[in-house]
Amino acid sequence: MTLSDALAHHVHDGNCVALEGFTHLIPFAAGHELIRQGRRDLHLVRMTPDLIYDQMIGMGCARRLTFSWGGNPGVGSLHRLRDAIEHAWPHALELDEHSHAGMAVAYTAGASGLPFGVLRGYQGCDLPQHNPRIASVTCPYSGERLATVPALRPDVTILHAQVADAQGNVSLHGIVGAQREAALAARTVIVTVEQRVESLPPAMNQIVLPHWIVNAIVHCPLGAWPSYAQGHYDRDNAFYLNWDAVSRDRQKFLRWMQDNILSSANHAEMMHRVARERAA
Amino acid sequence: MSYTADEMMTIAAARQLRNGDVCFVGIGLPGAACNLARMTHAPDLVLIYESGTVGTRPERLPLSIGDGELAQTAAYVVSLPEVFAYYLQAGRVDIGFLGAAQMDRFGNLNSTAIGDYAQPHTRLPGAGGAPEIAAHAAQTFVVMKANPRSMVEALDFRTSGGFLEGHGTRQTQGLRGAGPQVVITDIGILRPAPGSQELQLHEIYPGASVEQARAAFGWPLQVTNALQTLGAPSARELETLRALQRRSAIAHLHRQPLPLHLLDTCP
Known about the structure:
The complex is a heterodimer. Chain A has 10 helices and 13 strands.
């Protein structure tokens, strides 16, 4: 199955979609394809929106964003996210904002089939005053007041991983963030992988996502670029640094998206295009 | 050796950490201080990044808190729900080291927005791990540059709790750690006053004056009676810091060739 077919089949306008990956294994190729397919009104969920959501928000794919840290790591702002919040460009974006600890338990609750997650969190923090979804509960055993967040249950979770076997079991390693929880919390799971193998080497903790919870696997080398896939390629930090200047200006951003994403039929073509541009 | 105020700040921040401390490293300025400490006087400092890398020993500063080098040089890597629940929330972290855009006199921090939350003048990245780091670490260290825009009378948004309104209010609100015990700026170091918990200038850097310090704060800065002058950076501290920053800058700007050959593995 091609990435284009898998996403066209499973992701629809208005869906709640989580493309997870904490700095590592960010499913960029899938996000780019959603932009090409012109998805609209998505409720995007990601702890760290990163460049992929900056691009999707700037291209008008998102109506709502659930997140916990919206910067360009080590560089500064996500300018398209900022423009959406500060100036409603290209249109207004609803925020459902949390802390990392809050989102981690929200995914864990979703993965566990529970209605909400509980944590000792948000104390001294103004977020609960602005986000009515952050509430509290009294512990029936100790009487302690604890924070609660509703379970996250994405319609579709999309991940990138290192390897999948012929049966459809997925293995990933390195910084794993909350990917496992995000996948198990979702109704539908799509995974792009660097590599396909006949069978994974027998190891008791090797399979992270079993075949029966994964709806589609797409072989997509470099699918996490410009983030990285441990053991395959490094994070392209120069791209992240350069994105600051590209994304700061609306027209420059739109031109970059047109020249690189929209003009490419698929991810492989985009990678060759970026390589040619670098060589020029 | 001559040095800049930024170098002095990072070195002063590094000196606050003791060998063997378990330190949760926040985004931004704390990374340089924590790794400098590990490379100088605290080789057994345990650094935890929120990406789940525990006991990591990077040779250069990562650009992001999730760079591959942090995982490769870690003692082990855990998931994000695990690092926040089992390590931070459960009280297994000695020091939470944070930066921020704004701070008030009680060490409360803003990293969310300048202006109104719903209609911000400047939207900042947001909370990330900070609120729970500030709440649960046994104590919090803060490193940030001091100027009247960053050190403010009233925060636009309180992302992470310090001493809240002071006078013990923190302890009544369920923040279990001892709060911001040390704030390292580019002029000097602040520590909470007994009782009020208002931050006051405790140590000043060589060559800086109390008047300069007062001018850098947006509230009337209190100064302890026992004000001390911190020792200048040693040659070893400066050389280690500069080499670390040089290695990091080269690595971040390096335009690696795109590994296009990997595309050929796809049928």
